[in-house]
Amino acid sequence: xxxxxxxxxxxxxxxxxxxxxxxxxxxxxxxxxxxxxxxxxxxxxxxxxxxxxxxxxxxxxxxxxxxxxxxxxxxxxxxxxxxxxxxxxxxxxxxxxxxx
Amino acid sequence: xxxxxxxxxxxxxxxxxxxxxxxxxxxxxxxxxxxxxxxxxxxxxxxxxxxxxxxxxxxxxxxxxxxxxxxxxxxxxxxxxxxxxxxxxxxxxxxxxxxxxxxxxxxxxxxxxxxxxxxxxxxxxxxxxxxxxxxxxxxxxxxxxxxxxxxxxxxxxxxxxxxxxxxxxxxxxxxxxxxxxxxxxxxxxxxxxxxxxxxxxxxxxxxxxxxxxxxxxxxxxxxxxxxxxxxxxxxxxxxxxxxxxxxxxxxxxxxxxxxxxxxxxxxxxxxxxxxxxxxxxxxxxxxxxxxxxxxxxxxxxxxxxxxxxxxxxxxxxxxxxxxxxxxxxxxxxxxxxxxxxxxxxxxxxxxxxxxxxxxxxxxxxxxxxxxxxxxxxxxxxxxxxxxxxxxxxxxxxxxxxxxxxxxxxxxxxxxxxxxxxxxxxxxxxxxxxxxxxxxxxxxxxxxxxxxxxxxxxxxxxxxxxxxxxxxxxxxxxxxxxxxxxxxxxxxxxxxxxxxxxxxxxxxxxxx
Lengths: 100, 511
Description:
The complex is a heterodimer of chains A (100) and B (511).
Chain A lengths: L5 H10 L6 H18 L2 H4 L29 H5 L21
Helix pairs in contact in A: 1-2
Chain B lengths: L1 H6 L2 H9 L5 H19 L2 E4 L2 H15 L11 E5 L26 H8 L3 E6 L33 H8 L5 E5 L6 H7 L2 E4 L20 E5 L2 H11 L17 H6 L7 E5 L9 H16 L3 E5 L7 H16 L20 H12 L2 H14 L5 H22 L4 E5 L15 H5 L6 H6 L3 E8 L6 E7 L5 H19 L14 H7 L3
Parallel strand pairs in B: 2-3, 2-4, 7-8, 7-9
Antiparallel strand pairs in B: 1-3, 4-6, 5-6, 5-10, 9-11, 10-11
Helix pairs in contact in B: 3-4, 3-18, 11-13, 11-14
GO molecular function, one term (chain A): glutaminyl-tRNA synthase (glutamine-hydrolyzing) activity
GO biological process, one term (chain A): regulation of translational fidelity
EC number (chain A): 6.3.5.-
């Protein structure tokens, strides 16, 4: 499979919303290459006839009545750990930048 | 008196509490004193409840005095892995990004231990977001192995394992995604159980990989693990992956332990040259002991286990990269604003850069890559197929044997720093524990002795079919009884006395 480049890692970091430094990108490029080399052996046995498993125990979807439960947090409790909030809402900085 | 109290098993302490020979306040105080004396050197705890634990204990003592019906572990102190959220107690999952966060609710296993009258002593150290095998990836510094303070206590739940091994708590809660309960048990001479996936609610457990994570007991003996398992297991409507059926008593399985006629399969692929000589030696001695007492030992092959680590290190990062997206600087935890301000996305990126450690970043990027368009089928899709093949290996094996056995991990505790620079060699620690998580089956690790070459603890792992957790307690309890008869007591009685480390602790501060 293809080699990982620094540009790819920078792109992935952007997708994952982590402002990696150039040094971190350099490190990760090497490490990811090594790790991917170690894990790509999965393709040796993953033949088309094998069905994928996403969950260890077969389960069905769970439904419940659409009523308010007993474990619901109050707005104050929900906001208590927020870095910034006003009365009843989480507060964030601008959604759009100047170039947008 | 105090030293005697901390060395009791949870079951024995519970019995003394029930008989009124000791109060929960006394028992809790004895453990808090022990934490004060040795935790500077061990660093098993990230948070200690202190006087609040004493107040909780006093309340249980009042209930007992009033004649309230209490369970076998009522009044017994317990340590809680920091991956579980606890109302009113800090919960960081070993990460800076959650430093100082006080959750507004309890995880279901925490609710259950509180309802059982147990006394939370505090929160235990772990690799950040449970990513690691050594606690070296904790943002708050590593935990030290009570058998040798220069060595790792295993991970990610090194704090929970070390806390019970150092007699700071009689038992603890852990979480196991690829071995995080069992491998620390192996290197610290303690007992750890990963229940069947879905046996214990994951509600309030800060998710690493949702299809692999499972909460379980961390203790010094098999009966204590069974008692705690009985407390925390059971259906929870708040976790849709929780198994609805009722469970038999694990403590009962321990009390009836008998291996005559039990068919034990030795996994050929996990009994190889890649394992340390002393680890294999103790493993085979344990098997011989079981055989002498009526068990039948059969060699079985699990040909796809060699692909399990590769599949795991694709599935886990993929799920983790998604689960950790919630740390976005909006609802809880850290917020870092770039110089001169920025958009919400720039704030998010700066926060995650500052708040996540190197291993977390590595796995998020890896997971993002494995899930990205063009690579999804080759990596994540293939890994899911390997998962099927590993499950088929288990199905074939369990058609012939009742339980499977292997050494829990390839080596005894290694020294700090030994594997830090090489992520792939660190990942290989989990070679024997990962298959159980991929297939959802339960596993136990219990001490099988000390490796002759380094005098460090070695664990033996048993695995059972999904929902047959009781089989683990049966074989585990039987082997423990046979081994302790040979050793003349528990293995931990041979661990070094840590009380001389009090001064070091004070000098070194928050190591």
